[in-house]
Amino acid sequence: MIKEYISANQQRFLDELFDLLRIPSVSADSRHKNDVRKAAEFVKEKLVTAGVDKAELCETKGYPIVFGEKIIDATLPTVLVYGHYDVQPPDPLDLWNSPAFEPVIKDGKIYARGSCDDKGQFYMHIKAFEAMMKLKALPCNVKFMIEGEEEVGSDNLGTFVKENKSKLKADVILISDTAMISLDHPSITVGLRGLSYMEVEVTGPNRDLHSGVYGGAVANPINVLSQMIASLHDENGRVTIPGFYDKVVELTVAQREDLNKAPFSLDAYKKELGIDEIKGENGYTTLERTGIRPTLDVNGIWGGYTGEGAKTVLPSKANAKISMRLVPNQVNEEITELFTKHFLSIAPKSVKVKVTALHGGQPAVTPTDSPAFYAASKAFQEVWGKSPIPTRDGGSIPIVSLFKKELGLDTVLMGFGLDSDAIHSPNEHYGIKNFLMGIETITSFYKHYSKV
Ligand code: BES
Ligand code: MN
Ligand code: MN
């Protein structure tokens, strides 16, 4: 029944998703302020037509949170669906094969910014809900909470959650904003890394100098910053910040063996990324390096002359954006502080260093022995013909740990993206098959969840 409904309506589902993808809801860029709001309005409207009792835009200091609910019977369990309608900036624009906000289908995939992260994924939930409503097959209560600031750190969502505990009362959180291993190997994410995101500024002389007249006699902030950054890793690929690993939970041998049972081809991995060799913390596999180990990476670095041709200049300033991915039981505020202290302590006297924390979030591990996980597992078996493999993902969704802390709720991370979908990169895409089978899997989750 559900299957028939999905295939009979799939063209309309895709048309609607395309309309949403055409809205450039880039939360990081204030020039898109109106577009981000437009996306919120769009989502609210679609919730209404899908059949919620009520939907509203809950205003925050930033972008609104779209909230909608369908309560069929207060004695039945309630599923709270979370997603985000904002997207990452599309830059660098010239690397897109087709414009980021003009979705097209190529080889069975939808190409557009947000197609996978997260518009394509949360929209599956609205369509799954619509299908269950139309077929009178919704077996429990549903709440939707779709926010517009995930890609910039969800600052206002935390406050919203704390202030609206009864509105958000539910039994489980359901999120599709992660990846599965492959179409042949469905998986459920059971761990997400946390994040500490820093910006640093190194200042040398009070103005840009002629690099011939002064070069060699005055500290060059870019040279200094490069050295400081290079010193943040040792020869074993470990982060050198004192105390960085103190709270890291080491997995048991059995747990590590389990994690490494997930299908993974190093050759395919290297080939897909166009690299000849991998690099990371010694003593850990690639799955461990991204799943259970903390890291430090420069996300951007600038300073001096970067225009066309050569300009001989010894710059006054150099800057970098540095992120650290965290694992249990690291605490983002503590890591932020350790970084700040250490980075200031390694600064030579010839420069001044400023460190700012941009945003962060705690890591999360979700249970595999809960009724909701069991239902999700059943749903994957039913639709994909295989038991899903539990995986630890390297990305972050800071709100997951907050849901646990503030609402006492566990999350099921039922993601249908693929690592190769190029989220945050040019040519982001999402498989139509993932989209349609995802809708079916979600409906199957509700069926099984209402039975356990
Ligand atoms: N959906 C991603 C997180 C993700 C992607 C988790 C793939 C697991 C697998 C989310 O939209 C995201 O990009 N989060 C940011 C953090 C946020 C605080 C800006 C991230 O991970 O960089
Ligand atoms: Mn996302
Ligand atoms: Mn993202």
Number of DSSP E strands: 20
| Structural class based on helices, strands and sheet pairing | alpha/beta
CATH class value of the largest domain: Alpha Beta
Average pLDDT confidence is 97
Spatial order of the strands forming the largest sheet: 1-2-6-3-7-18
Given as residue ranges, the uncertain stretches (5+ residues, pLDDT < 50) are none
End-to-end Cα distance: 22 Å
Bound molecules: ligand BES, manganese (II) ion
**CATH architectural label of the largest domain:** 3-Layer(aba) Sandwich
Quaternary organisation: single chain
Please give the count of helices: 12
How many distinct domains?
Answer: 2
Cα gyration radius (Å): 23 Å
- What is the global morphology? globular
The helix content, as a percent range, equals 25-40%
Task: Tell me about the largest β-sheet.
Answer: 6 strands, mixed
What fraction of the residues are assigned to beta strands by DSSP?
Answer: 15-25%
CATH superfamily of the largest domain: Zn peptidases
Q: What is the CATH T-level topology of the largest domain?
A: Aminopeptidase
List keywords for this structure.
alpha/beta; Aminopeptidase; Alpha-Beta Plaits; 2 domains; six-stranded mixed sheet; four-stranded antiparallel sheet; 20 strands; binds ligand BES; binds manganese (II) ion
